Amino acid sequence: MKTVKDLLGSKRGALLDIGCWRGTLEKLLPECEYTGLDIERAGDTPRNLILQDLDSKPHLPFEDGTFDIIVCTEILEHLRWPEKVAMEMRRVLKKDGVMIISLPNEFTIYGRLFHLFGRNTMAEAGHRRCFDLTEARRFMKANFAVKKEVYVPAAEFPWTGPLARALPRIFAYWLFFVVGSS
Fold first, then answer.
1. Which residues of 9-42 are buried (b: 16+ CB within 10 A; e: fewer)?
2. Using one digit for the tens of pLDDT, what is the confidence trace for 90-104?
3. Are strands 174-180 and 67-73 parallel, antiparallel or unpaired?
4. How many Å apart are CA 159 and CA 171, to the nearest integer?
5. By CB atoms within 10 Å of each CB, which of 21, 73, 130, 165 scores lowest?
6. For the chain, what is the domain count?
7. CA–CA dist 91, 102 (Å, integer)
8. Which CATH number belongs to the domain containing residue 75 in this structure?
C-alpha cells in the first residue's frame, strides 16, 4: 500500500477502495472520505464497507462522478469480465479524478519457474484473467487514459527493484497504472 500512497502524492478527497479487504488504505489515508468495497468481510473491516460480488453484479452502487480517487489493486484478474467493472470505475470517477490500478504480471521469471515445475500459482490464487505486461497495457489503454506505469518487484526479492524497472516483462511482479477516466 506504500506504493499506492506514493503514487497518490498529495491527492485527497472521496476514495473508493475496490477489494479493500481489511481497509488498510483507510488507516493509511485518514484524511480521505473512505469507502471500501469487497466481496466479504475480513476481520478488522473498514467503517464504511459495501459488500458486493463484482462478477455477478458489476454495477457500482454510486452516482456518476462520486469519487476523487479509486484504488483497485489485485482485483481485476479475479473477474470474468473486468471490462464491465472498468466501465463502472470510469463512470463513478470525477472528471479530474485519479485511479490507481494494479495487476499481477503472470509471466515473471518466478511464474515461469513455477510453470516449469508444474504449478500454476495464479490459477491457484483464483485468477480468471492472465495479464502479462503487454496484455495489461492493452487492457489499460482500451479502458482508461494511462498517465503513468510503475513496476514493483516481488516482496520476497526487493533487491530486484532495478531489474523490475529495467526489464518489467520478466522481473516486475506487480504492474501499477495511474489512470484517468478518459
1. eebeebbbbbbbbbbbbbeebeebebbbbbeeee
2. 999 999 999 999 999
3. unpaired
4. 11
5. 165
6. 1
7. 19
8. 3.40.50.150
